[in-house]
Structures are given as C-alpha cells and as structure tokens.
Specification:
It comes from Kribbella voronezhensis. This is Putative membrane protein. Its main location: membrane. This protein is an all-alpha fold and 206 residues long. 33% of the residues are buried. It contains 7 helices and no strands.
C-alpha cells in the first residue's frame, strides 16, 4: 500500500501528543501572588519546551524518512504504531518530571522514566528505517542504499545517547536533563539532512 494514509494518521497523533503537553501546565488558583506562582511552575515550562522540541524532532525525522519510504506493509504499520504509542507517552513522562522537580522529591526516578521513554521510542524509529531499507524493499529511487545506510548509522546513535543521558540522570538529575536538551539541536541540525531530502527535478535550460 502507499504511505499516504499512514503519514496522515501519524501526523494527527503527533499533533495530539504535542498539544497534550500544555495541559500539564496548570493555571495558578491563587492569583494574589501571581508572579511568584508563575515562577514556581518553571519545571513545567522546562518539561514543556524540551518535550515539545523532542516530539517536533521525531515528527520532522519521521516526515523525512517517509520522503523515501514509498510503500508500506503490515509489519511497517505495526512498527509505526509502536512508535506512535511511545510518542503519546511523552506528555505523561514530562508531567511526572515536572511534578518531581516542583516538589524536589524522586527527581532521579522522574528523569530515568523520561529517558527510558525516549530510549524506547528510538527503538521502533530505528526499526522502521532498518526494515524499510533492507534490500531497498520499501524505499524509492530518491535515495541510494549507501545513503540509506549512512542515515541508519546516525539514527542508531539516538537511543544510545539518550541512554547515556538516562544513566547520568540517575546519578545527577540535572545532568540528565542537560543531555536531553543538548541532543535536541544535535538532531535538529544533523549534517546528514541533505540525504533526507528528496532531490529536486532539474530545471530545463532556457
């Protein structure tokens, strides 16, 4: 089957997941000291920003993958469903993270939970690309096998680096969050992005 319906469904799930992030930020009930109350919500703002950019990053790379994946089968649909399930779990883990830092309790546990969700999400993401590129079975002519392999190597780093951040967060929670935050620009601006774009048709000479 073609991938149009899969992509449309995925876009809808990404949109819902990224919107759910704002629900965790509760409006202060006591407005007598509003500035102070708003300031106390800084963990929620932090979780919102990091998670919004992470989900946006997953969506952008998912979109880029499906520039080259031109057909889908039931296995690919299943792998994509597992990925979306874990994406939708990010708002919950972000809420737990914010709550722990607001109270100052169980911060290590909350960072580990957040990191485990990110690591787990990287597994089906890599599986989608790996499955599609094997023998070029689901890819179109817009990418060569060598280019697909180079992209796969970069994707492999995601779960590993998030795993490192999770382990560091188990020791020093703030350090784990710093690693998660630093990986956002790393993957938003990858040097391999030109391989993820469809080639533009050559313009006829005038």
């Amino acid at each position: 089957m073609k991938t149009a319906r899969l992509e449309a469904f995925s876009d809808g799930v990404f949109a819902i997941a990224i919107t759910l992030l704002i629900i965790e930020i509760k409006v202060p009930e006591d407005t007598s000291h509003l500035l102070t109350k708003l300031g106390e919500l800084w963990p929620s703002y932090l979780g919102f920003v990091i998670s919004f950019l992470v989900i946006g990053l997953i969506w952008a790379n998912h979109h880029a993958m499906f520039d080259h994946i031109v057909t889908a089968d039931r296995t690919l649909l299943f792998l994509n469903t597992v990925l979306l399930m874990l994406v939708v779990f990010i708002p919950f883990s972000a809420g737990v993270l914010a709550a722990a830092f607001r109270t100052g309790e169980s911060e290590r546990t909350s960072v580990v939970l957040y990191g485990v969700v990110l690591v787990a999400g990287g597994i089906p993401f890599n599986a989608i690309w790996e499955y599609a590129r094997r023998n070029h079975r689901l890819l179109g002519p817009s990418i060569t096998p060598a280019e697909a392999k180079r992209i796969a190597r970069r994707f492999y780093l995601g779960p590993v680096l998030y795993g490192v951040g999770t382990l560091l967060g188990a020791l020093v929670p703030a350090l784990g969050i710093a690693v998660f935050a630093l990986l956002i620009p790393y993957y938003w601006l990858p040097p391999a992005m030109h391989w993820l774009r469809k080639p533009q048709p050559a313009q006829p000479a005038e």
